[in-house]
Amino acid sequence: MSSRGAPLLWETRAVPEVTDEAFKRFLKFPPTRDFAGPMAEAAAEARAWYASYGRPWGAAIATDPVRWPAACAELRAAPAAALIAVGAGTEVADEAAARWTRDEPDRAYFLDRFAAAVTEALLAEAKRTLGATFHDCPGFWDWPITGNRDLLAAFTAIAPLPGPLEVLDSGMLRPKTSQLALCDRPATSAGASRDA
Known about the structure:
Blueprint: E1 10-12, H1 20-27, H2 37-53, E2 57-63, H3 73-76, E3 80-87, H4 90-101, H5 105-130, E4 135-136, H6 147-158, E5 166-167, E6 173-174, E7 178-185, E8 193-194
Parallel strand pairs: 1-8
Antiparallel strand pairs: 1-2, 2-3, 3-7, 4-7, 5-6
Helix pairs in contact: 1-5, 2-5, 4-5
């Protein structure tokens, strides 16, 4: 339950598993090539930093799929839907920015890309927990990125977010390694799941 009494369908603050395959994809690194030398060090350091200092968060609430006319037709036709908010945390964004300032671009890039992979893993975990088969987000297909404003307002009208998130005038999210999404939900999916 949220502090406003609305049930959360899913909530977590646990660091999700990020596979090397996912991390390499966000780095634009060849998937069959092993990390070696300085790249292996940068990858290991990014994982270690995030394990020690990262503060991921995620939550999901129920929503009516027909409320979102800009979402894909498959979502509007779903029996039920969930609004998901996830983020890798402000700490990682601040640290990546500090590394750029200290002229450490490789370390900044690896940490930022690891945070992006964390965000993707959180979204996948939410979908798996909710039994979702697909999701849609502002900025994809025909849904303008400014749709993030409506999603954030809808979420915070029902429950507080477990982590910091704002929508910029452009519709982009800050921190950038955050995501708002709608997913389908089987009509029978009603249980809440929470992780530490």
